[in-house]
Amino acid sequence: MPGENLSRDEAHERAALLSVDGYEVVLDLRSAVGDSAEAVRTFRSETTIRFRRTGEGASTFVDLIAPSVNAVTLNGRSLDPAVVFDGSRIAVDGLADENVLVVDAQCAYSRTGEGMHRFVDPEDGEVYLYTQYEPADARRVYANFEQPDLKAPYRFAVTAPEGWTVWSNGAGEQDAEGVWRFAETAPISTYITCVVAGPYHYVTDSYTRGELEIPLGAMCRKSLAKHFDADDVFLITKQGFDFFHDNFDYPYPFGKYDQAFVPEYNLGAMENPGMVTFREEYIYRGKVTQAAYESRANVILHEMAHMWFGDLVTMVWWDDLWLKESFADFMGSFVNAEATRFTNSWVTFANNRKAWAYRADQLPSTHPITADIRDLEDAKLNFDGITYAKGASVLKQLVAYAGRDAFLEGARRYFKRHAYGNTRLADLLTILEETSGRDMTTWSKSWLQTSGVNTLTPVVTYDAEGRITELAVVQEGGELRPHRAAVGLYRLSAEGDLVRFARAETDITGARTVVAELAGEEKPDLVLVNDDDLTYCKIRFDEGSLATLRAHLGDIGDPLARALCWSALWNLTRDGLMPARDFVSVALAFAGRETDIGVVQMVHAWTKSAVSLYAAPEWREEGGRLLAEGGLRELRLAEPGSEHQLTWARFFAATAGSDADFQLLEGLLDGTAKIDGLDVDQELRWALLSPLAVHGRADEGRIGEELSRDDTATGKRHQVRLLASRPSAAVKAQAWAQVVESDTLSNALVEATIAGFVQPTQRELIAPYAEKYFAAIEGLWAERSIQIGIDVVKGLFPGLQDSDETLAAADAWLTAHESAAPALRRLVLEARDDLARALRAQACDRLAA
Q: Which one of 388, 447, 474, 665 has the lowest number of neighbouring Cβ atoms within 10 Å?
């Protein structure tokens, strides 16, 4: 892996030396069809690059990761591949003012989701291919200058097995020789080029707006076609295009718009212009909640926003990754709320996406939104909660600060001024200053160029009659930022509802800000800072407000206000300021009354973490029992057939721990038990079987029986996960060997095996692997692809061995490996910090006993 890295300095030097006129890429993928047991399979890749020397120097390098190179020719002169190719770069010298480089290579199919991924469908034996490149894996498929600021037009030609269809960024057709040829693209970066090939099920539609017509396509594996609701995908797509054309004043610039749902995908989706790829888990095989459909819509709109933010206008280097990801993350919720049926998407954002940001921003690896990205390994790790969710939160604050109209006008000018080019932070700030009249430099320094999250706490004084004499907001944090925020006052009505009776929106600056508009108001039962979620911060409560929430959280009528309170209570728990058992108590009291299903699912995840990570170890068994009892109670109370019933059924299965619980799960699986309205479809069957495997009540044979009912790619992943989850030392040894000591598993099966291996109820069983983990990770990081390295290092960190000894072992590894890859050290440091946080929270919870 280290030899495949590329530094920012190298990229800047190369950009100063040359510009690229175009690529012609010819791929022969006929070798993809054959015996799937063959260990190594390659395809031929021929690339012609036309480029000009625009700076001083006569030598450079071209990026290529491939098993072998057949030939290299520069301006008609043959170069010896054995001399110029080192496995990740091709050195070229003797550059002319105008150059033509031709590289003929044998590239490898991938099992890790990086480069040209090859997948064999176990259901029907069909082979499917797709590419995934971000941030720098196009070089696994064709020779190129792998950096975002060397944009160029591309022409792809692909020879595929008979009966296949091939797609790329541009429109394509098959010629008489059986070769698929694609229209030349607009100038784009390497990481958003794309090829999808195979016997995919393909559905078409079109979007029309005036004289603009955009051909639409959506595809998935043939075996998933019966589950594919392409009509809903197209509906969201058209609603998104309507919004963007209404507000961006720049027509979609890339011709057609295909969307491929592909197997074993590492990401949620990827914004390849004209050929967006998604993880196929967004095709739902069973009943799911509206939160799942909202999530899919958000991703569709996020990727569509990238057509402008990222594809049309692209960052110069990965330092400014936020210029595309923060905007796309913000636009996903923004458009969902304003143009689709998911009008409460800001509730999901406040409760779910921001939780990701708050965690990332409190890690020792936190960084400014505009990060210092030294190389590609840094870039890979910066697709994180700060770049996405914090950046989106800050953009929401920017809209409040600068105004919606100024923000959208800034976007319009940005696209027109920098179309098909590359930008830095200053380019956007200049335009936003023009449209808003605000000082964006000062705002940027506070919000984009510093790290950390602020905490806002209300301090209220009252007169003898109980009216507010002063309400101040105290701000804490390393950087005291300007916040445009609202403060809401809530009181209990005669009907028992907690309703807002006063609100003030103000600029919060410095350590203490008095909200003068609220002086004289009656004493509230709840003071909610950051009401309406305008800014990015953690919020605290005064003592009276916290007492109100403990007794009346479910009585808050506004779903966004409730979501903010749930999030704030969870932050108190993570910060060791509220005992985990108290959070569990509030959750069990009020989660059953929560109307927003996405919030319910988030609270479920938090309560499970509260018990398994943040509760005192001696209370875990009791906490687990309370969760299972509460889950079963709410399952039986939920409306038959409702999404709440389905969600509580999954929660109950995940927390089941008694013989009675297991007997009910077994009855639901074999049909001897029924819960009115609960449809036990195949996906729910796997969820019900999972705790039985974890607790030793479902052996290999029983798991195999379930696979025979669902002998699909998804069923195989479930089977692998459940097999690794069984409570046996031999099982754990086998799983460890498959992931750490072998590289034969695909990315999806590595993920499934790790998920099964790590079980909170099996701490003692996996304890011996803590020492093995620290002995293995540096070698593994050097030998595996970066994606697999990340999955293993994060997934197998022994955080469940929650003791000072494990903390000391992590510290010892960090001390002894100061020269290890920075990205590897970052992963260990983050996991170590999570463990230290858990120990602090456990100490807090122990005091509540």
A: 474
* Amino acid residing at 697: R
Q: How far apart are CA 323 and CA 237, in angstroms?
A: 22
Gap between the Cα atoms of 19 and 780, Å rounded: 37
Is 303 one of the annotated active-site residues of the chain?
yes
Q: Confirm whether pTM is higher than 0.90.
A: yes
Q: What are the average pLDDT values for consecutive 10-residue runs of the chain, which has 849 residues?
A: 80 97 97 66 96 95 97 97 97 97 97 95 95 96 98 98 96 92 98 98 97 97 97 98 97 98 96 98 96 97 97 96 92 97 95 94 93 88 89 91 92 97 93 92 91 97 95 96 96 94 96 97 97 96 97 96 97 97 98 96 98 98 98 98 98 98 98 96 98 98 97 96 98 98 94 98 97 97 93 97 97 97 94 98 94
Which of 303, 409, 594, 706 is catalytic? The answer is 303
Host H or E run for residue 428:
helix 425-436
Q: Say if CB 533 and CB 346 are below 8 A apart.
A: yes
DSSP class of residue 319 equals G
Cβ count within 10 A of residue 522: 13
| CB count in 10 Å sphere of residue 96 | 11
Q: Going by C-beta distance under 8 Å and a sequence separation of 6 or more, which residues neighbour residue 83?
A: none
Q: Which residues contact 796 (CB under 8 A, 6 or more apart)?
A: 739, 740, 754, 757, 758, 769, 773
The CA distances from residue 690 to 657, 686, 724, 735, in Å, are 12, 6, 11, 17
d(CA 74, CA 96): 10
Sheet (strand 526-531) strand order: 498-508, 483-492, 526-531
**What is the Cα–Cα distance from 533 to 561, expressed in whole angstroms?**
8
Q: Which two tokens stand for residue 769?
A: 């692997």
* Burial of residue 59, with CB atoms counted within 10 A of its CB: 0-12 exposed, 13-18 middle, 19 or more buried: exposed
User: CB count, 10 Å around CB of 442?
Assistant: 10
Tell me the one-letter amino acid at 324: K
Residue bearing tokens 């905490």: 455
Query: What's the rounded Cα separation, in Å, for the pair 74 and 76?
Result: 5
Beta bridge partners of 527: 489
Burial 581-597 (b: 16+ CB within 10 A, else e): bbbbbbbbebbbebebb
Give the DSSP H or E segment for 118.
Answer: strand 115-120
3-state secondary structure of 541: coil
Residues in CB range of 819: below 8 A, 6 or more apart: none
Whether the link from the prior residue into 135 is cis, omega within 30° of 0, is yes
How many residues are given for the chain? Answer: 849
Distance CA 140, CA 63 (A): 9
Query: Any idea what DSSP says for residue 250?
Result: S
Residue 572: closest CA among 229, 804, 294, 845: 845
Beta strands in 68-114 (DSSP E): 68-74, 77-79, 89-93, 98-110
DSSP letter, residue 16: H
Packing angle between helix 440-447 and helix 391-402, nearest 10 degrees? Answer: 150
Quick check: helix, strand or coil at residue 28? strand
Copy the structure tokens of residue 23: 């690529």
Residues 258, 531: Cα–Cα separation, whole Å = 40
55: helix, strand or coil:
coil
344-378 pLDDT per residue, tens: 999 999 999 999 999 999 999 999 999 889 998 88
The span from the CA of 490 to the CA of 526, in Å, is: 5
